[in-house]
Structures are given as structure tokens and as C-alpha cells.
Please model this.
Amino acid sequence: MPRDQRRLDHLTWPEFKERVNRTAVIVPLGAVEQHGYHLPLGVDGQLPFHLALEAASRFPAMVAPPVWYGYKSQPRSGGGGRFPGTISLDGGTLTDIARDLIADLARQGQNAIVLLNGHMENTAFSGEGADLALRDRGAQAKVVLINWWEHVGPDVIDRLFPEGFPGWEAEHASLTETSLMAHFLPDLVLQDRLQQDEEFRPVPAYSVWPEPIGLVPESGVLYQATGASAAKGALLADHIAGEIVSILRAEFPDLAD
Amino acid sequence: MPRDQRRLDHLTWPEFKERVNRTAVIVPLGAVEQHGYHLPLGVDGQLPFHLALEAASRFPAMVAPPVWYGYKSQPRSGGGGRFPGTISLDGGTLTDIARDLIADLARQGQNAIVLLNGHMENTAFSGEGADLALRDRGAQAKVVLINWWEHVGPDVIDRLFPEGFPGWEAEHASLTETSLMAHFLPDLVLQDRLQQDEEFRPVPAYSVWPEPIGLVPESGVLYQATGASAAKGALLADHIAGEIVSILRAEFPDLAD
Amino acid sequence: MPRDQRRLDHLTWPEFKERVNRTAVIVPLGAVEQHGYHLPLGVDGQLPFHLALEAASRFPAMVAPPVWYGYKSQPRSGGGGRFPGTISLDGGTLTDIARDLIADLARQGQNAIVLLNGHMENTAFSGEGADLALRDRGAQAKVVLINWWEHVGPDVIDRLFPEGFPGWEAEHASLTETSLMAHFLPDLVLQDRLQQDEEFRPVPAYSVWPEPIGLVPESGVLYQATGASAAKGALLADHIAGEIVSILRAEFPDLAD
Amino acid sequence: MPRDQRRLDHLTWPEFKERVNRTAVIVPLGAVEQHGYHLPLGVDGQLPFHLALEAASRFPAMVAPPVWYGYKSQPRSGGGGRFPGTISLDGGTLTDIARDLIADLARQGQNAIVLLNGHMENTAFSGEGADLALRDRGAQAKVVLINWWEHVGPDVIDRLFPEGFPGWEAEHASLTETSLMAHFLPDLVLQDRLQQDEEFRPVPAYSVWPEPIGLVPESGVLYQATGASAAKGALLADHIAGEIVSILRAEFPDLAD
Amino acid sequence: MPRDQRRLDHLTWPEFKERVNRTAVIVPLGAVEQHGYHLPLGVDGQLPFHLALEAASRFPAMVAPPVWYGYKSQPRSGGGGRFPGTISLDGGTLTDIARDLIADLARQGQNAIVLLNGHMENTAFSGEGADLALRDRGAQAKVVLINWWEHVGPDVIDRLFPEGFPGWEAEHASLTETSLMAHFLPDLVLQDRLQQDEEFRPVPAYSVWPEPIGLVPESGVLYQATGASAAKGALLADHIAGEIVSILRAEFPDLAD
Amino acid sequence: MPRDQRRLDHLTWPEFKERVNRTAVIVPLGAVEQHGYHLPLGVDGQLPFHLALEAASRFPAMVAPPVWYGYKSQPRSGGGGRFPGTISLDGGTLTDIARDLIADLARQGQNAIVLLNGHMENTAFSGEGADLALRDRGAQAKVVLINWWEHVGPDVIDRLFPEGFPGWEAEHASLTETSLMAHFLPDLVLQDRLQQDEEFRPVPAYSVWPEPIGLVPESGVLYQATGASAAKGALLADHIAGEIVSILRAEFPDLAD
Model:
């Protein structure tokens, strides 16, 4: 593995010291969660990690080591704890991780902190961690929480889904995630196991505990991934990284070069 | 990045399902912590991660995504929160992470779980997580917690330190860690910044809060790293992986092939 | 106040005993949060409380006392902690409330439990409470979490918003909430303070801490409420209560008479 | 329901803003707990809620939405978890609720905060919440915790209990609570189910876990309620509200008009 | 210090093993809290410790090491955090201590557990610990919580207080505590510093945070201690130990010899 | 028991007030844990308590009441939860105790605080408490954590172990603890139950949960205690107390007289 100076964990402490608060710190948040027959369990962390690296090529930023584990996968977003391989944290644990990391970065003078999230279920709990870091730990920081899929513009959606977009809840292990993985980590997409298109099954509109059996299709894929391609992934990656950079420029104007 | 079937996060969920409880799961525990002028902040996670992969080449095991962040670095083990770039979790947060991961693995039938730790300060808090997973979550699992440096035999020590071993507390960013990094991730060792040997300064024999200034040498290195080499790292890696595998064979005899 | 046998807190304990697990228990979840110049701070609890009563007229159910306070109001859903009168709980506190109530109901044999939520930000934290009640407290219960606004069908939306629907995020103190309040509690709608239509300002697509100043319009209303009416509220209430009852029938078929 | 400007949840946010720290905020604390054959489960919240409203008619104050749920009912105060319908929170949960509400009120400048408690078992845990709000959240507030039954003067006691007062521990669902309910919410007193006087059974002088069976009389009433009347309730309500107002005047002299 | 076989911490593990669940275990709960000019800070732990030893002379029981620290001293019981030397635990900490000790005793088969409490403010929090040990840890135990001062019968009160009893709230560092200390630990009573009788000042009937200045008399003694004597202490000790033994006989009849 | 002015709990509050921050406060940390056939369960608290008293004879210090209970005994340090009589706290509970005591001492102006620890497993968790007291409670204090066995110099070791030192992990209920107990509390050493020398069994080099059966010798003693004597205990006590005083002089120079 070559040294990548965008990665915080590849830096020495004097290198970190030079960059602290002169660049943003991006913490990718992921999950270990089923992603169908053709994608690996680590997708939700790999995507924000690679998007963060791409953003860090365009804006001064250090990419912190990803938090690979996330909050419990929910059927409403196409996952669920009933699939083998979904390994999750409690909500309070994720909150505490976010709180601790933000507070400890702020302690050293790092003001500009970005949580780049790849797992829908992480949103509320990691956001609470940001709030507690500022309120209870006195962190002098500005924290931005970005869910990458919320920054795909309507024109890109139209290009990727000419027959209509099923909604992001259905986009689990489907066209966008598969394309992005095919772009960033092509060896991790098992093209031959990509299922024939299943009939679209809408996600439930309420939640039930204990998790019902059979809510999610057997494969774990809510919607078709067959149209996915590395080219579409490249388009998405470029677009999303651009949007992230726009946010960073807007929120941390002093850091923009 | 090629697909690595030893890595849990590279597997699809059906592949995980095939392996669950027919292989061990190894969770590397690290830290983001100063490692002198010549080693990067991520050493403490990278070493158990690569040692785990090496062990998984010799014993049926899945290597789970590392927990990159660890408990607060302490001067008594050569680190300390006063160095820029040391980004830590509270003790309770690390306990909860270990508890959640073990409990969620056990929920799916995974009995054989290994915490492979690369940061001395993680030991007590992650061990408490193991205890709570079994006691409070009812996890039906056997958890083994291994600190890799406790498995370097005296003859290897003698070969590496012909002039005498300063003790593992002093081995922070020093000969063993530098050699292992030079073996696993040579690009991440900045040989030209390796300091001339400092005079050995023993670690303090008691702890003080707030952390005193100047306890640790300015570089962050407690003892000489100049004798480090990739060859010594290869020797160490082979030896330690062998010891880990011996433990796995002894503790999980049913999994040994 | 007349005795209302749909209300759990109006029952004596022998009356509760007769009904326990022969009816569902619905716990309304609210918030104390700004709702513009014309609606009171208690809207988010009053709406699920009255919808629950309406549902309990059509399906055997006891309506438990509302949890009036909710998770911190967020700008992304039109609220925010910067408005006076927004009084909130931490995420962990809300999780614990939901966990305790579910577990204590289940302890007495109540299996059918519904959280009827009126505040978007409560969703994840109260859902975690449901999960913990079942997992950590051993609650033998089936818990259903319903956000009322997710059950307004597209044809109703079309009738209410002939000029296009701005999305539920914008529907804070706007047409639907104002209409429902005008139906259930007309004295609490200050018609004369209803603002002229502001230009629609879309909610932000990412979150920032500390909460930015000026994200939400000065009034606290994201979108026009001027088309609101008690008649539209009656339509909505009837429709939503019907949807809730459909869910109860589907999830608790043994209780349906 | 008419708009009641004493109720915080009936106010709009600009109305709240006008009153903040120019009036006290009273938070009623209740419980959902058995109250014999003739009183409903919600007594412990209704009484402080109505007493707070009465006090707010005499002293500038906003009555916040009640915390309907309280700490686990104990046999020593005539309740107990063995009765159906007793639905309780853990001690830590109640502490966190009190801490969060006080801290969030203080954040907006509200200094004068009253917890008006109707359930003996809430006392210690809600008091701890007050302490933590000030100490850990830095709330700049003065918090007063009042148990209403501790403010019934000896002459009133003598008038109500000419044959001798059994002690407040025995006054569970008995004369005072029944009279106050008959005054505030007469429809919620089931006069025909009021039991003939049972022989007085003193409450136990120590606590046992698990809760013993049969400690509390079968009805749940420790002492006679047959002498209760709306007239006595009116007397009590007037007296207690007067005492509360005296405390408010003494503790918040700047607010008294 | 001679070996005292009533003390659990004086036993070897095989001796403990012989006694486990064939005797009760009594855990004294204390506090470090001001006790006037003439009594030491440790009174609240010493009294239940010595009463427990006395009870263990009459009933088969092991006296566990005291929990010397207790919940925050409150003005309503004559103490308060404003006096130097009052060193307290949070409520949650005391709950966790009680929970852990009960659960760990029960784990080894010890069913009969007594919390003998000497500090009024500990009651609710240690009781919650007992509840959680049974509910959340599955402890198979019967826990009895005794406040020693609640077991002084009216005839003893009459003998000790011929001029009338001020109530236990006022009995802080006063006649009963001073007499018991004079009996058990006479060297720790500084007779020469015993103040002349102050005029009785009743304890407040509600609580205020932050703790008001001057609520408690300057000495810290609420009521006269001048009538105290070792003889009265001997009478009290004998009486209370007898009452404790009566409770133990009633609650643990199988252990009574 | 004579009054001992070194003991904080023997002081009145005015005496404490005179000493506060003009002397150090030493809090002994212990455990209730098996110590073989010949030593009682309370050794781990008694040793730091008596060493603290000895140090307080040589340096201005108050010895606070010991925290008798400690973190779960581990096989790696010769103990283990499988022995009857081992009664432990969770890690988080011990952290909270240390945090609360330090913070409450600091609140009264006590800056110089020493945790004198007698149980290896307490180290990390009590240290975390110190960190949290300073960071989260704003305690203005300097906290020193000393494990007494880490301050036995090599020459003393050589005198006590002429045939070689097995390491402190093995020194559980062995020569040093037995000698110190024979010095401080001779009646608590059951000389006749002292086992013949067992063959030395090294402690395991990794941890396993659930705790394996048979890891620790049947007696609970890892290594020979037969050479123990009160004379050796006196030598050790004098030496260790001297080392503690040296640390106190170095860390709290203003207090040294």
C-alpha cells in the first residue's frame, strides 16, 4: 500500500500538526451489512471512505480512519438484522463514538469536522454525538454531517434512472451502490452473482420489532442492480465528490485554497 | 484493491453464512496515536490487522474490519494525549464497541471470536466488553483477547535485542513496531526521519492526571528504532502469527483443519 | 373532563386488567417545539394523541398518556433549538423512555404495543428503545412504530396540495398540521396570526452543529399554511386513523373484533 | 378544549418568548399507578397538573406538559409493581428527563423552575436530575422540588381527619387523593366502586425485592377513602395551591407581581 | 486487629464457601458527611457496620465490607454539600454499586442479602440497585433494605426523648447518633466540642438547587445532642439489633438456627 | 478503636476544613477477592489502607475511607471470578466511583489526590475515573495513581527472592502479600493453612471469556508463600511507604513540610 497523504492514519504526528485546522477532517461512517449476492458486507464504509478521498483531492482535508461499524440495519432501508453478516452497534455506542472523536479532534484545535455517512441508519445517532461533543464536551468545532446519497442531483438521477427512480430507501445494493463499487473497487463486485431483476418491492412504511421475517427480498436487494456499471459509478463519484466539496467550501471558506 | 477472502468485509452475506462458526472471527483493535517522527498515526491498528490476515492464512478465520480508534494513549506506554494526532475514545465507549460486536456476532451463531489488540491501553476496556457481552447479552461465545506483543518469545527477543530488551512499555514506535511496519507497509515508514538514538528514558512507574508535560521524549519515541528492518519485521510477523495460530488451535480445536 | 374509556389513564386498574393484551396499547410520542406564529408548542404531541383516540374508536386499543417531550428539534425538519419554547430530551433519554414503557407493559402481558409518533426526530431514538426492550429486557411484545405523516396516501396529498406537495420535511406548522389542529383543537389555532405565504425555502440537505442562525424562516413555518382548514383536517384525520387501523388489523389480527 | 394561557403547550413560541423568565415554569411529575377500585391510573399526574394550574392563576407561571410516567411504585407508599396498570420508568430515566428539561429550559434563559411532584417515589430521582442539570449542564437556574402532600398544614389535616391521620404513606388512593380528584375531575371518580372501609394496614417499615405478594390490600387502597368529598377536595386544593404560591413568592420574589 | 469471623473480609475463600447462603450477607451502606463539631465524618457508615456486627452475633450472617461513600447529603436530612468533608457519589453510581454487589453475591448462590443503611439519602438509589440486580442481572436473591432509624420503637423513643421527639430528619448528629457512637466508638465522640443546645430549627419542607446557604445551622447539628450518652447508645444498639434480627428471622426463616 | 487523626473519617468537618488542600488525600482502592487458604478476602484493600496510614505518618495526608470493592478479578493476575468470595464491581462502576470522589474532593478545594491501589485489575478503570473527573467535571486537581507493588525496588526484590522473582502477576496471596499482612494484621494470616509449595504455574499470556476452569491452582495461590514473614513485611512496608512519600514529595512539593 503506497503512502497516501490524504489519509490521516498515514501521516506522522508532525505532519498532522502542520495540517490541523488548516484542513478539514473527514470521518467516514459505515456499516457491516448485507448487500445482496454480489456486493460485499463492507460497502457502506468503503463508499464514504473513497468519496472522502476523492473530495480530499479537491479540497484540503484529512480522511480519518473509517468507523466501519454502524447502527443496526433496518428493513425500512433494505437491510435488517436477519441477514447473516450484518454486525451492528447500539445507537448509544455510535453516539459515543462520534462524540468522542469530535471532542478529541476539537481538543487539539481541529475546528472543521465532517462526518461523511454511508449508512442511512447512522444519521440520527451520529448527529446526536455531534451535538453532545459541542454541548457536553465543550468542543469548539463546526461539524457537518453529510449522507452522500442526498447529494445526487435530479439531473444525475434522471440520467441514471431513465425509467424512474425508486427512492433512496430502495437503493440498497442496487444501481447506485453497485456502480460506485464497480468504479472504486471493481474486484469486490461479483458480477456473476448479480441477480436477475426482481420485481420491485416497496419498503414498509412503518417499523416492527421483532423484525418480521421476509420483509426484505431473499437476496437482500430491494431493486434492480443490473444496470450498474463502472462508468455510471465514475459519473456518480465525480458528481458527489463535487457536491461534497461545494459544501466544504461553503461551510469552511477559510480552508478553501 | 483485490478481493481478499480472508477479510470479512470483502465477503458477501452468503459467503459469510457459509463460514459462520466454521471459522474464527478476528477483530483487530487499534488506536490513532503518535508514533514518532517516522511512523504514521495508524500503526496500532495496522499491525494487528496484518497479523490477523497472516494468521487467517494459516487457520480458518475471517478478519473483521478493524476498530481503528482506541482508548486514550497513556505516557506509561509511551504515548499520551499531549501529542497532536492522538485521537481516542473513552473507556466506556471502547467497552461498548467490544460488547456490541461480540454480542452481534454471537447472535448469528459465531462462537469463536478473537480480539487481536495492538494498543496496550485497550486491554482492560475491551476485555470488559467481552465480559459484558457474555454476561449481559447472553452471548454464547468464547472470546480470546490477545495482545500481540505478549507473544514474542524470549529467543526472538534475544535475537532482536542482543544488547538487552528495554521492556514492552518502551517499545512504542521503536524497534519492533518499526520493523513490523517495514515488513507489512514499507511505504509508511519514513526512514529518513528516523531519529538518532535517544538516550533511553524509562517510563514512569505511576500515573498522573492531568498528563504532565515532557514525560515522553519530544519525538514520541521512547527507545531506539534505528536497528529496525523489514527482515526483522518478517521474522517477528512469522513468529507472532505462528503464536496466534497456536492459541487458536488450542482454544478452538474444532475449527482447526 | 368526562371519563374517556379509550384513555388508559382514565381506567382503574381492574379495568386495565380486563383489557390487557385484549386490546392494543398506543403510546403517543410528541415534542415541545415551535410551530410558527399561529400554532402552539404542543402540536407534535396533540396530533398523535388525537389520532390515537380516533383509532381507538375503531379498533380495540387503550391510549396511554402521551410522552409530551421529544428529541431535539432539527432544522432539517423545520424546527430547531434556536426558537424559544423548544424544550427537548437527549436521544438516550428518549430511547430509555420507550424501552422502559414497552418493557413494563410487556411485563404485565401486554404484547401489542404501538408507538404513534408526531415528531420526525423521535423516530430513530424511540425505535432503538423498542429494540432494547425486546433484546435487553426480554419483552415478549410486538412493537409497531408509526409516523402519522407517512400514511397520507398520494390521492389525499393530491387533493390537499393541488399545486404540488413540498415534501413532509417542509410540512412543519404548515397545511397538514394546521388543518389537523383546526379539526381537533380549533381554539388552539390562532388564525389571525397565520402569516401570509412566505416564499418556499427548501430545508437543508445536510446538518450542521452548532445549529446555524437563520436556516429556518423567522416565523418557524417552512411553507404556507394559509390553505389550511378544519375540513381538510377532518379529511386527514379520518384518512390517517383509517390507515392506522389498517396497520393494527394487519399486525394484531387477534385483537380485531 | 379551550385555549388555556397558563399551559405552556398552548402558547405559541412568541408567547413563550414574552414570558420566559418573567414567569416561573412548573413541570408536573406524575406516575401511572394503581389507585384502588375507584380512582384511575393517572391520578398522580393529574393532581400536580391541576394544582399547578391553580397556582398559575395566582402567580405568574407557565405549566409545562406533565411527565405522566414516574419511578417504580413501591409497596411502602401503597403502590407496587404487582398491580396491573402500574407502568413505570427506571430511576435513571426519570433523572435524565428532569435533567434534560431543566437544562433545556435554562438554556433559553428560564431561571425559575418548579418540579411539582405527585408521586412519592419520584422525589430522589427527579431531585438528582435537578442537581445534574446545574452541575453537569451548567444550567443557570433555581430549581424547587415540591411534593404537594408535604404542604398540607396540621390544621387542615385535623379538619380532614378528625379521628386521626394515618400518615401520608397510607394516603394512597385514600381520602386526600379521592377528594382532590372529586374536586378537579369528578367524572374520573367511580363513587360506586369505592370500597367499604378496610381495616387499616400499616405500610411495611423496610423494603424487600422481589416485591412480596400481598403486602398491599387487594384493592390497592391502604386506608379508607369513604369520607372523601369534592368539598374536602376544594378545601385541599385551595390550601395547597396557596402554599405553593407562598413558596414561589419566597423563592422567586422578582416574579411576584 | 483480631480476626472477627462475622466479617466477610476476614474470612478465607473456603470459609466463605462454607457459609454462602447458609448465612445472610449484610452490606452496610454509609456516607462521608458532616456530623457537627463533635462527631466524625464517618458516622453514617460506622453505625450500620457496628449494628450489623451486633446482629451477626445473634443471627447467622456475614458482614460485608461497608460501602463508606453515599449519595449526596441533603439539607432536608440535616446535611448538605456546603459543609467541608461531605464527599458523595452520584445517584447512578450508588445504584450501580448496589446492583453489582447484589448480582455478584447472587451469582455465587447467596440468596439472602441485606442492605443495612445509615444515610437517609441512600434509600432510593440503593433500592433501585436491588431492583436492577434482580431484573437486569437475573439475580436469584431476596434483598432486604433496612434503614436502622426506622426500627426504633415508640417506647424507646419515649424513653430517649421524654420531652418529645423532633422527627428523624432532625436526628442528624443529634441524640441518637451521638449515643450510638458513644457506645460503639467512644473515642470518636469529642464530648468537649458538643455544642450547647441550639434552638430547634425545622428542616425545610421542599428542596432547592443550588443548595441554599444557611439552611442548616452553622454547626451542622439540627437538634440537641447534649442528652446523648453511651448508656442510651447501648439501649439503642441492643434494641435496633434485636429489630434487625426479627426482620432477618421473618424474611430468611431457613437461616435461623 | 482509638481516634486516628490520619483517617479522614475520624475527623470532624472543622478538622477536615483545616486540612483541606494543606494535606494530600489518599484513597485506598481494594477488592474482595480470594487469597488462598491462608489469607482473608479483604487483603487487597487492607494493604493499601495500612500503607496509606504509614505514608500519612511521614507526609501530611488524610487517608480517606477505602473503596473495599474492586474490578473483576482476572486469572491473569492470579484471581478469578470462579472462586467463592470474589465479589466485584463492573468496570464502569469503578470508574464512576473514582470520578465522583475526585470531583467531590476537588469541589471543596482539595487539589492533591492520591489513589493508592492494591488490586491490579483496578488500574485502568480507576485511572479513567481520574481522567473524567478532570475533563468532564472540571475538577481542578492533580491525581496520582499508585500501584504499591510497582514501587518495590530491585534490591528489595533481590533480598526477598534470593532464588529469583516470579513476576508480580504471580505474587497473588504469595510471599509479598502474606508478609505484609503478617506485619500489619498478623491475626488475619492463618499460618497453619499455608500450603506447601506448589510447583510454579505461570499465568496465562492471553485472556479468555468465559473464564476457563482450572487456570488458577486449586488453592488460589500462584506461587509459594511459605517464605513469608512479618519481618519481611516490615521491610516491605517501610520501603514502600518511603517510595510513596517520595512520590508525594515530588508531586506535591507545596505540601511537604
